[in-house]
Protein backbone atom coordinates (compact mmCIF):
# COMPACT_ATOMS: atom_id res chain seq x y z
CA UNK A 1 0.00 0.00 0.00
CA UNK A 2 1.30 3.45 -0.91
CA UNK A 3 2.05 5.88 1.90
CA UNK A 4 -0.58 8.59 2.35
CA UNK A 5 1.58 11.64 2.91
CA UNK A 6 0.22 14.41 5.15
CA UNK A 7 1.37 16.30 8.31
CA UNK A 8 1.07 14.02 11.33
CA UNK A 9 0.15 14.90 14.89
CA UNK A 10 0.35 12.58 17.88
CA UNK A 11 -1.40 12.10 21.20
CA UNK A 12 0.69 13.71 23.96
CA UNK A 13 2.31 11.30 26.43
CA UNK A 14 1.96 13.11 29.75
CA UNK A 15 4.36 12.50 32.61
CA UNK A 16 3.87 13.32 36.27
CA UNK A 17 7.03 14.63 37.92
CA UNK A 18 7.78 15.70 41.47
CA UNK A 19 8.73 19.13 40.06
CA UNK A 20 5.79 19.45 37.61
CA UNK A 21 2.83 21.84 37.60
CA UNK A 22 -0.29 22.83 35.64
CA UNK A 23 1.02 25.14 32.90
CA UNK A 24 0.87 22.45 30.22
CA UNK A 25 -2.91 22.72 30.63
CA UNK A 26 -3.24 26.47 31.20
CA UNK A 27 -0.90 27.39 28.34
CA UNK A 28 -1.46 24.59 25.80
CA UNK A 29 -4.66 22.86 26.96
CA UNK A 30 -2.93 19.49 27.34
CA UNK A 31 -5.15 16.92 29.14
CA UNK A 32 -2.87 16.70 32.19
CA UNK A 33 -3.52 13.90 34.72
CA UNK A 34 -2.67 15.95 37.83
CA UNK A 35 -1.28 19.20 39.23
CA UNK A 36 2.26 17.80 39.09
CA UNK A 37 2.47 17.18 35.34
CA UNK A 38 6.01 17.99 34.26
CA UNK A 39 6.33 16.72 30.69
CA UNK A 40 4.34 16.30 27.50
CA UNK A 41 6.16 13.93 25.17
CA UNK A 42 4.99 15.19 21.80
CA UNK A 43 6.79 12.79 19.49
CA UNK A 44 8.57 9.74 20.88
CA UNK A 45 9.99 6.42 19.76
CA UNK A 46 11.28 5.56 23.25
CA UNK A 47 10.48 1.93 24.10
CA UNK A 48 7.35 1.83 26.26
CA UNK A 49 6.46 5.41 25.31
CA UNK A 50 5.84 5.28 21.56
CA UNK A 51 3.67 8.03 20.09
CA UNK A 52 0.32 7.28 18.45
CA UNK A 53 -1.04 9.32 15.52
CA UNK A 54 -4.04 11.49 16.45
CA UNK A 55 -5.13 12.86 13.06
CA UNK A 56 -6.13 11.78 9.59
CA UNK A 57 -5.82 8.45 7.78
CA UNK A 58 -3.25 6.96 10.19
CA UNK A 59 -5.05 7.96 13.42
CA UNK A 60 -4.56 5.21 16.00
CA UNK A 61 -1.40 3.88 14.35
CA UNK A 62 1.81 3.94 16.38
CA UNK A 63 4.95 5.66 15.16
CA UNK A 64 6.65 2.24 15.25
CA UNK A 65 4.06 0.74 12.89
CA UNK A 66 4.51 3.56 10.37
CA UNK A 67 8.31 3.40 10.56
CA UNK A 68 8.22 -0.34 9.92
CA UNK A 69 6.04 0.05 6.84
CA UNK A 70 7.25 3.38 5.38
CA UNK A 71 10.75 4.25 6.62
CA UNK A 72 11.92 6.22 3.57
CA UNK A 73 8.65 8.10 3.19
CA UNK A 74 8.48 9.06 6.85
CA UNK A 75 12.09 9.49 7.96
CA UNK A 76 13.71 10.38 4.66
CA UNK A 77 16.29 8.44 2.68
CA UNK A 78 19.35 9.79 4.51
CA UNK A 79 17.84 9.46 7.99
CA UNK A 80 16.66 5.92 7.26
CA UNK A 81 20.10 4.96 5.97
CA UNK A 82 21.73 6.33 9.12
CA UNK A 83 19.33 5.26 11.87
CA UNK A 84 17.36 2.36 10.41
CA UNK A 85 13.67 2.13 11.26
CA UNK A 86 14.01 4.16 14.44
CA UNK A 87 12.90 7.73 14.99
CA UNK A 88 16.10 9.38 16.24
CA UNK A 89 14.67 12.40 18.08
CA UNK A 90 12.37 13.03 21.04
CA UNK A 91 10.28 16.21 21.35
CA UNK A 92 8.86 17.49 24.64
CA UNK A 93 7.28 20.42 26.42
CA UNK A 94 8.31 20.78 30.08
CA UNK A 95 6.69 22.69 32.95
CA UNK A 96 9.07 23.21 35.87
CA UNK A 97 7.03 24.38 38.87
CA UNK A 98 10.07 23.52 41.00
CA UNK A 99 13.76 23.05 40.20
CA UNK A 100 14.64 19.88 38.32
CA UNK A 101 17.42 17.73 39.70
CA UNK A 102 21.02 18.52 38.81
CA UNK A 103 21.87 15.90 36.20
CA UNK A 104 24.01 14.86 33.27
CA UNK A 105 23.52 12.69 30.17
CA UNK A 106 26.09 10.23 28.79
CA UNK A 107 27.49 10.39 25.25
CA UNK A 108 26.69 7.84 22.54
CA UNK A 109 29.62 5.54 23.34
CA UNK A 110 28.92 5.39 27.09
CA UNK A 111 25.15 5.07 26.61
CA UNK A 112 25.62 2.25 24.08
CA UNK A 113 28.03 0.40 26.36
CA UNK A 114 25.95 0.74 29.53
CA UNK A 115 22.35 0.93 28.32
CA UNK A 116 22.30 -0.08 24.61
CA UNK A 117 20.90 3.39 23.97
CA UNK A 118 21.69 6.63 22.17
CA UNK A 119 23.31 9.35 24.21
CA UNK A 120 21.30 12.46 24.96
CA UNK A 121 22.36 15.67 23.29
CA UNK A 122 19.56 18.19 23.76
CA UNK A 123 18.47 21.80 23.37
CA UNK A 124 15.99 24.02 25.17
CA UNK A 125 13.87 26.90 23.94
CA UNK A 126 12.36 28.97 26.76
CA UNK A 127 8.64 29.51 26.04
CA UNK A 128 7.74 31.18 29.33
CA UNK A 129 9.83 32.37 32.27
CA UNK A 130 8.84 33.71 35.67
CA UNK A 131 10.69 36.86 36.74
CA UNK A 132 13.45 35.16 38.73
CA UNK A 133 13.80 31.97 36.67
CA UNK A 134 17.26 30.54 36.13
CA UNK A 135 19.09 27.63 34.56
CA UNK A 136 22.17 25.72 35.70
CA UNK A 137 24.55 24.89 32.84
CA UNK A 138 28.06 23.53 33.30
CA UNK A 139 30.75 24.60 35.72
CA UNK A 140 31.66 28.12 36.87
CA UNK A 141 35.31 27.26 36.25
CA UNK A 142 37.13 24.15 35.06
CA UNK A 143 36.60 21.33 37.57
CA UNK A 144 37.65 17.72 38.11
CA UNK A 145 36.21 14.38 39.27
CA UNK A 146 37.85 14.86 42.68
CA UNK A 147 36.38 18.35 43.16
CA UNK A 148 32.95 17.13 42.00
CA UNK A 149 32.90 14.24 44.53
CA UNK A 150 34.13 16.43 47.38
CA UNK A 151 31.47 19.06 46.68
CA UNK A 152 28.75 16.42 46.89
CA UNK A 153 30.14 15.14 50.17
CA UNK A 154 30.23 18.58 51.80
CA UNK A 155 27.03 19.92 50.18
CA UNK A 156 28.63 22.65 48.05
CA UNK A 157 27.88 21.31 44.55
CA UNK A 158 25.83 24.43 43.70
CA UNK A 159 28.90 26.61 44.30
CA UNK A 160 30.75 24.83 41.49
CA UNK A 161 28.03 25.26 38.87
CA UNK A 162 27.26 28.10 36.46
CA UNK A 163 23.83 29.70 36.91
CA UNK A 164 22.24 32.06 34.38
CA UNK A 165 18.95 33.93 34.33
CA UNK A 166 16.50 32.65 31.72
CA UNK A 167 13.99 34.65 29.68
CA UNK A 168 11.43 33.88 27.02
CA UNK A 169 13.16 33.17 23.71
CA UNK A 170 16.46 32.04 25.24
CA UNK A 171 18.10 28.99 23.65
CA UNK A 172 20.48 26.59 25.37
CA UNK A 173 22.34 23.77 23.62
CA UNK A 174 23.55 20.99 25.92
CA UNK A 175 26.07 18.58 24.55
CA UNK A 176 26.38 15.28 26.40
CA UNK A 177 28.42 15.59 29.55
CA UNK A 178 27.11 19.07 30.45
CA UNK A 179 25.88 19.17 34.04
CA UNK A 180 22.56 21.02 34.03
CA UNK A 181 19.22 21.74 35.67
CA UNK A 182 16.10 23.60 34.56
CA UNK A 183 15.07 25.99 37.33
CA UNK A 184 11.63 26.67 38.76
CA UNK A 185 9.23 28.89 36.83
CA UNK A 186 10.15 27.82 33.29
CA UNK A 187 8.22 26.28 30.42
CA UNK A 188 10.60 24.73 27.90
CA UNK A 189 10.39 23.21 24.43
CA UNK A 190 13.01 20.43 24.38
CA UNK A 191 14.54 18.66 21.39
CA UNK A 192 16.84 15.73 22.09
CA UNK A 193 18.17 12.43 20.86
CA UNK A 194 15.86 9.47 21.40
CA UNK A 195 17.07 8.49 24.85
CA UNK A 196 15.71 8.47 28.39
CA UNK A 197 19.10 8.02 30.10
CA UNK A 198 19.66 10.56 32.87
CA UNK A 199 22.22 10.47 35.67
CA UNK A 200 20.82 12.37 38.63
CA UNK A 201 23.59 13.98 40.70
CA UNK A 202 21.76 16.09 43.30
CA UNK A 203 18.04 16.49 44.04
CA UNK A 204 17.98 19.15 46.76
CA UNK A 205 17.20 16.41 49.34
CA UNK A 206 13.58 16.30 48.13
CA UNK A 207 11.10 13.64 49.18
CA UNK A 208 8.00 12.46 47.34
CA UNK A 209 4.50 12.09 48.80
CA UNK A 210 5.57 8.78 50.37
CA UNK A 211 8.63 10.38 51.99
CA UNK A 212 11.10 8.73 49.60
CA UNK A 213 14.10 10.41 48.01
CA UNK A 214 14.83 9.80 44.33
CA UNK A 215 17.72 7.61 43.27
CA UNK A 216 21.03 9.34 42.61
CA UNK A 217 23.67 8.21 40.09
CA UNK A 218 26.78 9.93 41.47
CA UNK A 219 29.22 7.20 40.40
CA UNK A 220 27.72 6.64 36.93
CA UNK A 221 27.97 10.38 36.32
CA UNK A 222 31.64 10.52 37.29
CA UNK A 223 33.06 9.64 33.86
CA UNK A 224 30.07 11.01 31.91
CA UNK A 225 30.70 14.62 33.00
CA UNK A 226 32.55 17.19 30.93
CA UNK A 227 34.57 19.10 33.56
CA UNK A 228 35.70 21.81 31.11
CA UNK A 229 33.87 25.10 30.60
CA UNK A 230 31.02 24.95 28.06
CA UNK A 231 29.34 27.59 25.93
CA UNK A 232 25.68 26.63 26.04
CA UNK A 233 23.58 29.73 25.31
CA UNK A 234 22.97 30.39 21.62
CA UNK A 235 22.19 33.67 19.85
CA UNK A 236 20.07 33.66 16.68
CA UNK A 237 18.51 35.98 14.12
CA UNK A 238 14.77 36.57 13.73
CA UNK A 239 14.28 37.39 10.04
CA UNK A 240 10.57 36.93 9.23
CA UNK A 241 9.35 34.10 7.00
CA UNK A 242 12.84 32.59 6.93
CA UNK A 243 14.68 29.77 8.67
CA UNK A 244 17.11 31.37 11.14
CA UNK A 245 19.80 28.99 12.39
CA UNK A 246 19.73 28.22 16.13
CA UNK A 247 21.52 24.89 16.57
CA UNK A 248 23.27 22.77 13.95
CA UNK A 249 24.82 19.58 15.34
CA UNK A 250 25.29 16.01 14.07
CA UNK A 251 22.02 14.92 15.70
CA UNK A 252 19.63 17.67 14.62
CA UNK A 253 19.33 21.10 13.06
CA UNK A 254 16.95 23.58 14.66
CA UNK A 255 15.90 26.87 13.07
CA UNK A 256 13.74 29.70 14.34
CA UNK A 257 11.02 30.62 11.84
CA UNK A 258 9.00 33.75 12.71
CA UNK A 259 6.01 33.41 10.42
CA UNK A 260 4.28 36.63 9.38
CA UNK A 261 2.11 35.84 6.38
CA UNK A 262 3.48 32.86 4.52
CA UNK A 263 6.60 30.92 3.60
CA UNK A 264 6.98 28.15 1.01
CA UNK A 265 9.20 25.22 1.94
CA UNK A 266 10.97 22.93 -0.55
CA UNK A 267 12.50 19.65 0.64
CA UNK A 268 14.48 16.90 -1.10
CA UNK A 269 13.19 13.80 0.70
CA UNK A 270 16.38 13.26 2.73
CA UNK A 271 14.85 14.08 6.15
CA UNK A 272 11.54 14.57 7.89
CA UNK A 273 10.75 18.05 9.25
CA UNK A 274 9.13 18.79 12.63
CA UNK A 275 7.51 22.08 13.62
CA UNK A 276 6.92 23.03 17.24
CA UNK A 277 4.60 26.02 17.53
CA UNK A 278 5.98 28.07 20.42
CA UNK A 279 3.68 31.08 19.90
CA UNK A 280 0.69 32.03 17.75
CA UNK A 281 -1.08 29.86 15.19
CA UNK A 282 -0.40 28.65 11.68
CA UNK A 283 -1.48 26.37 8.85
CA UNK A 284 0.37 23.95 6.60
CA UNK A 285 -0.99 23.81 3.07
CA UNK A 286 0.03 20.83 0.93
CA UNK A 287 -1.63 18.92 -1.91
CA UNK A 288 -4.60 21.30 -1.79
CA UNK A 289 -5.30 20.57 1.90
CA UNK A 290 -4.93 22.89 4.91
CA UNK A 291 -3.94 21.71 8.38
CA UNK A 292 -4.26 24.10 11.37
CA UNK A 293 -2.08 24.35 14.49
CA UNK A 294 -1.88 26.44 17.64
CA UNK A 295 0.66 27.23 20.38
CA UNK A 296 1.87 24.00 21.99
CA UNK A 297 1.27 21.85 18.89
CA UNK A 298 3.98 19.65 17.38
CA UNK A 299 3.66 18.38 13.82
CA UNK A 300 5.73 15.87 11.85
CA UNK A 301 5.95 16.59 8.12
CA UNK A 302 7.00 13.29 6.49
CA UNK A 303 10.03 13.40 4.20
CA UNK A 304 7.85 12.47 1.22
CA UNK A 305 5.99 15.81 1.57
CA UNK A 306 8.51 17.80 -0.43
CA UNK A 307 6.61 21.05 -1.07
CA UNK A 308 4.35 22.85 1.39
CA UNK A 309 3.39 26.36 2.47
CA UNK A 310 3.29 27.72 6.01
CA UNK A 311 0.69 30.43 6.65
CA UNK A 312 -0.16 32.50 9.71
CA UNK A 313 1.27 34.54 12.55
CA UNK A 314 3.48 32.27 14.63
CA UNK A 315 6.88 31.55 16.10
CA UNK A 316 8.03 28.12 14.98
CA UNK A 317 10.91 25.84 15.79
CA UNK A 318 11.83 23.96 12.59
CA UNK A 319 13.77 20.73 13.15
CA UNK A 320 15.31 18.20 10.76
CA UNK A 321 18.47 16.12 10.40
CA UNK A 322 21.14 17.35 7.98
Break the fold down into its secondary structure elements and pairings.
Layout: E1 13-21, H1 23-28, E2 37-43, E3 45-46, E4 49-50, H2 63-69, H3 71-75, H4 77-83, E5 89-96, E6 102-104, H5 108-115, E7 122-129, E8 134-139, H6 145-153, H7 157-160, E9 161-165, E10 171-174, E11 180-182, E12 186-193, E13 199-202, H8 218-222, E14 233-234, E15 244-248, E16 253-266, E17 273-286, E18 289-294, E19 298-301, E20 307-320
Account of the 3D structure:
- With 322 residues, the chain is α+β, with helices and mostly antiparallel strands.
- It folds into 2 domains: 13-234, Jelly Rolls; 244-320, Jelly Rolls (Sandwich), CATH 2.60.120.10.
- Helix content is 16%, strand content 40%.
- The strands form 5 sheets. The chain has a 7-stranded antiparallel β-sheet, with no helix packed on it. Strands 15, 16, 17, 18, 19 and 20 form a 6-stranded antiparallel β-sheet that branches. It has a 3-stranded antiparallel β-sheet with strand order 9-8-11.
- The longest helix has 9 residues, at 145-153.
- The radius of gyration is 20 Å and the shape is globular.
- Residues 247-320 form the Mannose-6-phosphate isomerase cupin domain.
- InterPro entries: Carb_Metab_Reg_Kinase/Isom, Man6P_isomerase_Firm_short, MPI_cupin_dom, PMI_typeI_cat, RmlC-like_jellyroll, RmlC_Cupin_sf.
- Zn(2+) binds at residues 105, 122, 180.
Amino acid sequence: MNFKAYPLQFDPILKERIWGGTKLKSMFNKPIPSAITGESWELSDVKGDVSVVSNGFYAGKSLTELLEAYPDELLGTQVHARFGKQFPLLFKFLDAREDLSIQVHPNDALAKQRHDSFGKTEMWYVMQADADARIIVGFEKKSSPEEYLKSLEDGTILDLLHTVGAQKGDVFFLETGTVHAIGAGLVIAEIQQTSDITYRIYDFDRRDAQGNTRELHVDLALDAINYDLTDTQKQYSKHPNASNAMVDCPYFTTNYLPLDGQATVQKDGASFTVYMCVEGGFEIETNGENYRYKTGDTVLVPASVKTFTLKGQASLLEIYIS
